[in-house]
Structures are given as C-alpha cells and as structure tokens.
C-alpha cells in the first residue's frame, strides 16, 4: 500500500523539467511548404544572381539570371556548371544545422529574446570534415519567443593543421537566419572565409550568399521533395 502522505500530494508537487531554449529550437517544426527563391552569390570565381526552384528536375533547379550563362567563360563557367548540377534548393533551412550541435552545448549568453550556445561542432560521418571541425568553435543563437535557430557560426580561434601537408590560417563561417512565411527559419545570408596553405602553396576561399523572395509552391510538402 502507498503511504498516505504520498497519496495526498497533488500532482503539481512534482514539477516537470523545463525545456531549454536550445532544446525547443532543435525540436521546432521542420515541415512546411516548399519554396522557390532568389539567390545572390559572390565567390572567387562567380558573381551572379539566380532563381532556385526545388520542384524542377535535379540539375535544372538553378536558373542563372545575371549574367546569362552563355556569357560565362573559364572558371566562372565551371563554377556555374558545378552549381547547376549540385543545387537542390532543399538545404536552405537553418534546421539543417541541428546535426552539428551536440547535446553538451553550453549557454554563454542570454537575453529576453534569444540565447547563445557554444560547442565543438559535430562533423557527421565524413572523416575529412571531422579533421577540420575538431579544431573549430561553434556558436548558435536561438529564439526564446518563437523556437528556431536565428544564427549559426563556426570559426577557428587559432591556426591549425588538419593534415600533414595542409595548414588553415583562418576559418570563419557565419549564417544569419530569417523567418519564412510559415515561421521556419532559413539561411538568409551566409559568409565563408578560409585561408591557409596546402602542399606549400597558399590558398584562400571567400563566398557570400543571400536568399530572398521566398515564394511557396502550391501543393507541395517537405516530404515530397526531401526537405529537412
């Protein structure tokens, strides 16, 4: 028989564990309409404006608006072909960063609207990526008002060597997230800067992306096109 004093205790005497802002953000809904959108790209080989439509067949989802494809030459033409083949349009969601955030991420600052967490980013199953990510610091800003990721970044606090013949002098990736019409957060802007040397040769990479003008495609769902 249960002791009488336990029977008498009201249920609210046992408080539920509160969900953290990060836990709420990682559990935010990921399903919703599929969107086509405008993409502005600036990197070392190509400065362009394009439209991306995930409902089109693979390899045809990116349409170059400016400059026109037939005017591209050399490295710019190669870069365009690479983008055209690989652009899916289904990775714009900031929830795609969920897989990089470990359970032991630590809150480092908090306001009434948002919380910031720091961590060593998870690399997934790619062993080459793991060699880089273990040297990086990750930070994610999450909303406390409407759960979701507001910003995500990874950076190196000092130079490192991911391989015997390579050294990274600087690494910085920052994504700022906007709200889609259905409330999910998407990568509104992304900045990537890497420099170092490999095989005794210096290298650098710089890229900027901006996503605008999201338009929901009728009769679509995330599961239909594999969006996260």
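^ structure tokens above, recovered residues below v
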């Amino acid at each position: 028989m249960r002791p009488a004093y336990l029977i008498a205790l009201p249920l609210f005497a046992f408080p539920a564990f509160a969900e953290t802002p990060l836990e709420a953000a990682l559990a935010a809904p990921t399903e919703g309409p599929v969107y086509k959108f405008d993409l502005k790209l600036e990197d070392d080989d190509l400065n362009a404006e394009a439209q991306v439509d995930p409902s089109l067949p693979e390899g045809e989802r990116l349409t170059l608006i400016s400059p026109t494809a037939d005017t591209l030459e050399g490295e710019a033409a190669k870069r365009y072909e690479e983008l055209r083949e690989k652009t899916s349009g289904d990775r714009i969601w900031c929830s795609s960063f969920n897989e990089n955030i470990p359970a032991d991420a630590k809150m480092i600052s908090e306001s009434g609207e948002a919380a910031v967490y720091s961590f060593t980013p998870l690399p997934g199953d790619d062993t080459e990526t793991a060699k880089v990510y273990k040297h990086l610091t990750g930070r994610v800003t999450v909303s406390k008002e409407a759960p979701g990721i507001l910003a995500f970044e990874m950076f190196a606090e000092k130079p490192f060597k991911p391989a015997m013949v390579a050294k990274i002098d600087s690494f910085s990736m920052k994504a700022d997230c906007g709200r889609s019409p259905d409330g999910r957060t998407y990568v509104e802007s992304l900045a990537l800067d890497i420099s170092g040397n490999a095989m005794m040769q210096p290298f650098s990479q710089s890229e900027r992306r901006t996503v605008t003008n999201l338009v929901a495609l009728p009769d679509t769902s995330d599961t239909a096109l594999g969006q996260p």
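The first strand starts at residue 35 and ends at 43.
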